[in-house]
Amino acid sequence: MARTVLVTGITGFIAKRIAHDLLAQGAHVRGTLRKLHRADEVRTALAGLGSDALERLSFVEADLLSDAGWREAMAGADAVMHTASPFPLSKPKAENEIIAPAVEGTKRVLSAAQRAGVTRVVLTSSMEAVMHGVTSAPMTEADWSDPNAPTASAYTRSKIFAERAAWDFAAAHPEMQLTTVNPGLVCGTPMDRHTGSSVAVVERILSGRDPAMPDFQLPVVDIADVSACHVAALDRPESIGRRYLCADRFLPFPDMAKALKAEFPERRIATRTAPNWLISTLALFDAQVALIKPLLGKSMSLSHAAARQDLGVDFVPATDAVLRTGRFLATK
C-alpha cells in the first residue's frame, strides 16, 4: 500500500517540488495550507503528473500558530515533511514575526505528529543554522551557527532555534525519528511562478538594478537536489538522527553575475565587484547590508559528503543551478 506523507506549507517553493517527487513515486501526499483557496495553485503546478497523481493529492487547512487542523492533517500519515517556515527578503518590524512561527510551528507539528503516532519526520532547516560565526573549512553537519554572530539575522535565528527545538523534542521523545536537511540558497527550475524569496536573489541580479556585485558568497543548491535529499531520507534508515548540509558549494555573487551575463549577453547585468569600502559605507544606512559586511572578501567552503554517501545525491553544480533559475525567469 502506498505511503501517505504530510507536507507542511505545500505552497512553498521547496514543498511543491517535494510533493511532485513523492507523487511521482506513487505516494499519497497531504499538504497543509494556511488557506484552502491556494489548493488550486498547487494542483495546477503538479498537473503535469497526470490525473492519477492528482487523485493522490489532498489538503488540510492548518496554521503554524494555531492547533486547529493538525490532528486531521496527521491522521493516517506515515511520515511528515515539515517545510513550512517564513523566509522574508526584507527585515521584519519585529524579530518575533519570523522566530515565533518557525519555533512554535516546529514544536506544534512535532507534537501533533507524536500524539498521532507519526514518528518519521524530515525537517527543512537551512545553511543559516550552520554557517554564521563558524570558521570550519569546510563546514560540516557538526557546525552550528552562533545566533549572536554579527552576520546573524532574525531569519538566521529562526532557523537555528527551530532546528534546535526539533532536536530537543526528538531527544525528549526517543520514538521520534528525525532528520534535518539544511539547504543553502535554493536555485534551479521552480514548479510554477510562485517562487518566493530565494529566486528573487537571481531575479535581482538579472534586473541589472545594482551597478556592481558585493564580494560575498552564498551556498547554492538546485531545488531538485533539495527535494532528492528529503525524499531519499524517508527510505534511508541511516539518515535518522542526522542533519545534512544540502548545497553544492559557496558561490560568489560576482561569479553568479558573470554566469548570467554570459547566458544573457543582451541584459545589462553588472559583473564587476563592488569595492568593500562602498559596501561598508552602505552598511551604515542599511541594516541588511550591514549583515554581510563581516563576510566581505571571505572565502567559505562546505562538505556535502554526508548527503552524497547517505542519501545518494550528486549535486548539480552551483552555477548550473543559478542558470536554470535565470532561464526560468527569462521566460516570464
UniProtKB/TrEMBL annotation:
UniProt xrefs under SUPFAM superfamilies: NAD(P)-binding Rossmann-fold domains
Signal peptide residues on this chain, from the entry's feature table: none
Record-linked Gene3D superfamilies: NAD(P)-binding Rossmann-like Domain
Keywords: Oxidoreductase
Record keyword Oxidoreductase present: yes
Record's keyword annotation contains Oxidoreductase: yes
GO molecular function (one): oxidoreductase activity, acting on the CH-OH group of donors, NAD or NADP as acceptor
Transmembrane segments: none
Residue span(s) of domain NAD-dependent epimerase/dehydratase: 5-244
Top-rank taxon: Bacteria
Family statement drawn from the similarity comment of this UniProt entry: Belongs to the NAD(P)-dependent epimerase/dehydratase family. Dihydroflavonol-4-reductase subfamily.
Protein name: Dihydrokaempferol 4-reductase
The organism of origin for this protein: Thioclava atlantica
